[in-house]
Specification:
390 residues; binds zinc ion; 2 domains; alpha+beta
Length: 390
């Protein structure tokens, strides 16, 4: 167990939130008790956390380096220092030279000089929990790909899945998704509301005009068991309640086209329930050994897979997400929460019957326009000739 406050007896450096950048480091920063201290980077006195001898922060930094970069991108210690002093994913770069000069006049480091960098990445520490140089740790070979692009367990799982080897597939899944995993559980309280949308509405003629009203009650609830089509987390004829935590996400999840009328109703939770939460996977809970780091890479791959919509030609992939749901259920979770690929909110899939329709809550919306954001896919080869999407 790593103590987060073991360094407090020693005088040391502190770092403030402004001088950290990666969202996973910020998340860790937010989880800690802050102290009113002078930041070693910018020199301001504000809410800060210790930098010196901060083992968990060092492990997190190293884990993020492994997650974001292949070893070819930093090569050696000098290369890593260069990488972290320039534009990078992990630490901010100072905006201008003049600001650096002001800092230096105040006899403060003013930029990521080697000393705090070595400290934050624990380059001097003999035995690190998270190796960032494969050769130094006698692991043979280099880390060819960043972990964000490669999870060994996820790749094995996909191979077993494609070959129909269900036992091996489930073993990997169970291993990586156990009930004991920290940080991927969330509890939702009784009374919590969700939005559920359905394309279409009721129509009636009133004085020659067509009047549209939203679906209510069972017309907007999940389809009853026995007639449900297979979905992301439900096999055929098994009913799962899909909903979102905000209006726009619920509408977007129905994939409407401009001109469509969409009915939206609100539902509330009947009881407190515990879910598997794939919306946020806090890295700092997975950064103290290489096994946890591999689990994190697996969960991020799983998260990306769950979030990406399954196209009609690849319906067989539903078997994979359905297996994930069945495993969660067998571990005692009552549903899954996951980010939406089409909205800013979160989706939930709840097994069994845990919600009530809120009477009279339905409203009708008409979709005015859809916007698309495109990015051309381009590959560049890294030094090992491995194509990497830019
Ligand atoms: Zn600072």
């Amino acid at each position: 167990m790593v103590s987060e406050h073991s360094h407090s007896k020693v005088m040391g450096w502190y770092v403030c939130k402004n001088c950290l950048k990666h969202e996973e480091i910020i998340r860790y920063f937010e989880s800690l008790r802050k102290e009113e201290k002078k930041c070693v980077i910018c020199g301001e006195t504000s809410d800060s956390i210790p930098l010196t001898n901060h083992t968990l922060l060092q492990n997190l930094m190293r884990a993020i380096i492994r997650f974001e970069y292949s070893e070819f991108e930093y090569d050696d210690r000098a290369g890593l220092e260069r990488l972290l002093q320039g534009e990078n994913f992990i630490l901010p770069t100072l905006p201008s030279l003049s600001i650096q000069n002001i800092y230096q006049k105040r006899k403060i480091f003013g930029r990521w000089t080697p000393q705090p960098l070595m400290e934050i990445c624990a380059l001097e520490r003999k035995h690190n929990d998270i190796p960032i140089f494969a050769s130094e740790e006698n692991l043979g070979g280099a880390f060819d790909l960043p972990l964000k692009d490669f999870s060994a367990d996820w790749r094995r799982l996909r191979i077993h899945f494609d070959q129909g080897e269900r036992d091996s597939f489930e073993k990997i899944l169970t291993h990586n998704l156990s009930e004991h995993l920290p940080g991927i559980r969330c509890k939702l309280k009784k009374g919590r509301t969700f939005f559920r949308a359905r394309i279409g509405c009721n129509e009636s003629i009133q004085n020659k005009a067509t009047v549209r009203t939203p679906y209510q009650g069972s017309a907007i609830d999940r389809s009853p068991a026995g007639i449900s089509k297979a979905g992301k987390f439900n096999p055929k004829e098994v009913s799962v309640f899909y909903a979102a935590d905000n209006l726009k996400t619920a509408v977007a999840e129905t994939r409407p086209h401009p001109g469509h009328y969409v009915s939206v109703g609100k539902f509330s939770l009947k009881d407190d329930i515990q879910l598997i939460d794939l919306s946020i996977i806090p890295f700092y809970k997975f950064c103290n050994n290489t096994r946890d780091l591999a689990t994190f890479a697996f969960l991020k791959a799983l998260q990306a897979f769950v979030v990406t919509p399954i196209v009609p030609e690849e319906q067989h992939l539903y078997d994979l997400t359905i297996s994930i749901a069945q495993l969660c259920r067998s571990l005692g979770f009552l549903g899954i929460r996951y980010p939406s690929s089409v909205g800013s909110g979160l989706n939930v899939a709840l097994f069994d019957d845990h919600v009530d329709y809120i009477g009279g809550s339905s409203k009708l919306y008409r979709l005015r326009e859809l916007k698309f954001e495109l990015k051309e896919v381009v590959y560049k080869l890294n030094r090992k000739q491995i194509p990497c999407e830019t």
